[in-house]
UniProtKB/TrEMBL annotation:
<dbReference type="GO" id="GO:0032259">
    <property type="term" value="P:methylation"/>
</dbReference>
<dbReference type="GO" id="GO:0046872">
    <property type="term" value="F:metal ion binding"/>
</dbReference>
<keyword id="KW-0460">Magnesium</keyword>
<protein>
    <recommendedName>
        <fullName>S-adenosylmethionine-dependent methyltransferase</fullName>
    </recommendedName>
</protein>
<keyword id="KW-0808">Transferase</keyword>
<comment type="similarity">
    <text>Belongs to the methyltransferase superfamily. Type-7 methyltransferase family.</text>
</comment>
<keyword id="KW-0489">Methyltransferase</keyword>
<dbReference type="InterPro" id="IPR042086">
    <property type="entry name" value="MeTrfase_capping"/>
</dbReference>
<dbReference type="GO" id="GO:0008168">
    <property type="term" value="F:methyltransferase activity"/>
</dbReference>
<dbReference type="InterPro" id="IPR005299">
    <property type="entry name" value="MeTrfase_7"/>
</dbReference>
<keyword id="KW-0479">Metal-binding</keyword>
<dbReference type="InterPro" id="IPR029063">
    <property type="entry name" value="SAM-dependent_MTases_sf"/>
</dbReference>
<dbReference type="Pfam" id="PF03492">
    <property type="entry name" value="Methyltransf_7"/>
</dbReference>
Length: 309
């Protein structure tokens, strides 16, 4: 899909003029190897489309300052066809000079909020999320509204920053997971099990909410149109092939989610409670597998391709 939108909608001749330097960013790169596959794919598609141009590619790998950039750079492919740089910082703000980027890519990162909505932690707020760690499972619509409001604020900053950084005619591809949100409730139930057994203070659960919001097509369309600096070239829910999902391997899936979430849990609950909660969640494999068998055929990934006006 990324190849198709680049071939159909990217016009390098109008962007580069006399320059032969092509700049690509991966926002939320983590430590590889997925980021290397994505960046090489973008480079190769552009090369294939403009084989008559002698282009030099610069790829900027971006993530938070606490990302393990040492591991990232030690893992760089030796046969890469681009120059590599690291850019630490939050993608909710400016990272690059004015009109300097030709293609931006962000996979499985845009759903992370810049912070937890503060209303969720206030006992006197209608959005107080007592006993839960996410909006999934919350009966109070105000909890969902707080997440949506924070998402829209973050996306306003995100698109304003990218609108300044991306050249006119440049492209941005965003990919966001969908079904992962429902799996968070299993981690939350493990924490409440510990509360009910007297091993964890409930106030610690009440003061913890995972800062992720999984946008729908309608959500993304709304924030893009509000910004009005990008045109939507393609947006749809897709169903990527995955051995983990196809085989309904709940244990493997939850171990992967643990790798993503463990730092948040340890920071808030401490390593002992975090370890116990994750161990208990993995033991819920049968319950999780039953849920996966019902839902694994649903489209579970949002793909959106944007062009800078």
């Amino acid at each position: 899909m990324m190849k198709e939108v680049i071939i159909e909608h990217l016009d390098i001749k109008n962007m580069l003029s006399s320059s032969n330097k092509f700049y690509i960013i991966d926002l939320g790169c983590s430590i590889g190897p997925n980021t290397f596959n994505s960046m090489q794919h973008v480079v190769q598609v552009v090369k294939d489309k403009y084989h008559d141009n002698i282009l030099e590619f610069q790829v900027f790998f971006n993530d938070h300052v606490n990302n393990d950039f040492n591991t990232l750079f030690r893992s760089l492919p030796v046969d890469r066809s681009y120059y590599a740089s690291g850019v630490p910082g939050s993608f909710h703000g400016r990272l690059f000079p004015l009109r300097s980027i030709h293609v931006a890519h962000c996979s499985s990162a845009i759903h992370w909020l810049s912070k937890t909505p503060k209303e969720l932690l206030d006992e006197n707020s209608p959005s107080w999320n007592k006993g839960l760690i996410h909006y999934i499972g919350a009966s109070n619509i105000e909890v969902m509204n707080a997440y949506v409001a924070q998402f829209e604020k973050d996306m306003e900053m995100f698109f304003n920053a990218r609108a300044e950084e991306i050249v006119p005619g440049g492209m941005m591809v965003l990919i966001s997971p969908q079904l992962s949100e429902h799996l968070l409730k299993f981690f939350g139930s493990s924490l409440m099990d510990l509360v009910n057994e007297g091993k964890l203070d409930e106030s610690l659960v009440n003061s913890f909410n995972v800062p992720v919001y999984f946008p729908s097509i309608e959500d993304m369309t709304r924030v893009v149109e509000k910004n009005d600096c990008f045109s939507i070239e393609r947006i749809e829910l897709t169903h990527p092939k995955s051995k983990i999902v196809d085989e309904a391997d709940a244990k493997t899936l939850m171990i992967n989610l643990r790798a993503v979430l463990e730092g948040l849990f340890i920071n808030h609950f401490g390593s002992k409670i975090a370890k116990e909660a994750f161990t208990r969640t993995i033991l819920k494999s049968d319950e999780i597998s039953a849920w996966m068998k019902i839902n694994y055929k649903k489209a579970c990934q949002l793909f959106i391709a944007l062009k800078r006006k």
